[in-house]
Amino acid sequence: MDILTIPVTPFFVNCYIVKDGGEAIVIDPGDVSDEVLRALDGSTVRTIVNTHGHCDHCGGNAALVEKTAAELVIHEADMPLLDALEAQGQMFGMRTTPSPAPSRFVVEGDTLTVGSAALSVVHAPGHSPGHIVLAGDGLVFCGDVLFAGSIGRTDLPGGDYEQLMGSIRDKLLPLADDTIVYTGHGPATTIGKERASNPFVVGL
Prior knowledge:
Number of strands: 14
Strand content: 25-35%
Number of domains: 1
Radius of gyration: 16 Å
């Protein structure tokens, strides 16, 4: 399995492309840059995943669905955010194209496959009501739940600090220390590093 990290949008969102066996999954296409399209060349895109419905993570949905005809998935609880992409963009001074309707909703326990690899859907609310993370073998794509040295913000509509800390404690910290954490913004880290030194996480 190959993982490509391509920062997009003025917010430097990490758009992840997971490739295996000629197939690809795209996680959080905040924008569809030429670099994203080049990275997908030659692969069949199975699924486009929004970890949550904020415009910096979903702004490229329409263009990528049009280019690939892949299914688009999100948790149903974030549909109000996805439906409000244009308004979100205006709030942050971004021009955002409305998203097409999701092909289906995902819930905790679902599995997304790419080639021979599998990613498990885990519901981790707090940054947003329907935020999900994707857990694989020794790795997790955690969107805006946990960062290197920090955590996701909870001051946006639908955010809840207690929920977020519960998601980190109950859904992420039980993972092995050497689990690689692919974050929504900034560098990757590991569960062990954050457990030991993240000031928001130490003592959970």
